[in-house]
Amino acid sequence: MMVRWSARLLAILPGLALAVAAIALAREHPSADTVTNAIINSLGVLMFWGIAIAISLRYPTRPLGALLYFLAGAFALQVLVISSDPILFTLSRVARPAVEVAAIWVMLAFPSGSLQGRREKIILLVGVLGLLLVWFPAVMSSQKIPLGGPFILCHPDCPRNALFVADLPELSKALLITFRTAGAGLLFAVAFVLFQRYRKASRLMRRTLAPVLFASIIRALTVAVYLILGESTLIIGFTLWAIPLALALGLLRGRMYMAKALQRLVSGLRGRPDMQTLRDVMASALEDESLELAFWVSESARWVDSQGREVALPAANEKTGRAVTMVEDQRGLPIAALIHDVALLEEPTLVDAVASSMQAALEAHRMAAALVDARASTASAVEEERHRIERDLHDGAQQRLIALRMKLAATSRVLKYDVRRAAELMREMDADVAAAFQELRAFSHGMAPPLLVERGLVVALSEAASCAAIPTRVALDDVGQCDAGVTAAIYFCCLEALQNAAKHAPAGSTATLSLTREGDQLSFCIANDGDQTHTEQNDVSGHGLRNMRERMAAIGGTLRIDRIPGQTFCVIGQVGVGRSIS
């Protein structure tokens, strides 16, 4: 609340000073010279006041606006120099050096409004001490106010010095000489510091600094020469006007620069540039070739450039000449950073627009990458589904068809000498054909065999053993309810193992299918007798065994082959019953 009232007071202070000056002028008998003098000084006040309002609206958080309000109020007191009232006249004359100190403050504090370096603070401190310890004692020890000015029309018959205390002309003269000498040296130091600031500034910063720095340097040198020579001219007043005019020119140039930068930025972003090109587009739009982009990697908690190299964010201040603007996502978390010339902070609206544009560009790249990943994932899912169908057909319906073909071959041999047996085999094959059709329909809908779904693993394996092309004994424990993926994988592995046994075991061989559960471990085993040392069943790279291993691996299980040459060949699988297909 106190800050708000202070700001309002500063805003109306020049107006109050002008009102007082108007009242003082109304009490006088104005001549053409006094009216001209009042108008010239009032125009200067209005210039400072207007630019103070513009700066405060554009940079509300900077103290520069408050400094300009103060300078406008101090300068408004100069209108009172036309008054014949001793108090008002003295107030105007004594405040004149204070106006110069306030102007020095504005010069050194531009563009932020805060004194950044030690030299600047020392210069301002010397100026204030000169007012308090030299100027005021010189005024109080003289009947007439020393140090004339360009707008003093009453000389030599000016109103009395309202601050006069004791007539000490020698002391007053010595103090005045000291004040002139120290003031001139101080102003030369100001001009030197401002020139050094311009010389060390970046090209982009010079765009902002040049008008105000040159106007300030000219003003400082003009007043320094006046203090040395003691000859006052109207140019001293007019050079003070150059400061608000330069500030206004800087604001206008800033607006034009921002419009051009936004136009270039929009044109550059139309082509949806990549990360490196995005940096070039922004650097070109902002005319800042030193611009860098850094991207936040949350996994490793570090900043990297577009090439993935680690980047350290610089300290942001006028000494380094660099500034950092964060780019945040919709949750307010940092995703990138703009490392740019500190001069760009003079255009906060432009910097915000660039940061928003970068956020939109990064979001577009993220969505494009997500789309590519989605397409790749979709293609992978399609390939996986195709492979699943191929595997299910191979392990399911294909095995029935192979068994059917073997029965056809057996029927053709039996038909020559046992017609009744051949007829029985034909009836069995009719059931096999119907079962094969049923499985094909189920597979076309991505389903497991109906019997497996409806009756469970034990019943489905019993039916598969009874239809196998090799005589098969079963030893199936009641394993209870299991995950659908687990039961399907075990079912198809058993079908494949039985079919391999039928194809590769010697004539007259038999098979045994067992299923057991111990705790959370579900195990199955398909064993057949006979020597199969040189068969595909022994080839670990065979298509059938590869399918079985893939199925078991997909549900987190294992598959192994045990063989005793000349005796048995076993396919053994194990899986935790709580596991599902990953």
Structure characterization notes:
The chain has helices at 2-27, 32-58, 64-76, 86-109, 118-140, 169-200, 203-229, 235-269, 275-286, 348-395, 397-414, 419-444, 450-455, 457-467, 484-504, 543-554; strands at residues 292-297, 302-304, 310-311, 322-328, 334-341, 472-476, 511-518, 521-529, 558-564, 568-576. It is α+β, with helices and mostly antiparallel strands and 582 residues long. The chain has 3 domains: 2-256; 271-360, no CATH class; 456-582, Histidine kinase-like ATPase, C-terminal domain (Heat Shock Protein 90), CATH 3.30.565.10. A 5-stranded antiparallel β-sheet has the order 3-2-1-5-4, with helices on one face. Strands 6-7-8-10-9 form a 5-stranded mixed β-sheet. A hairpin with a 5-residue loop joins strand 4 (322-328) and strand 5 (334-341). The radius of gyration is 48 Å and the shape is rod-shaped. The protein starts with a helix and ends in a 6-residue tail after the last strand. Mean pLDDT is 77; it is low at 533-540.
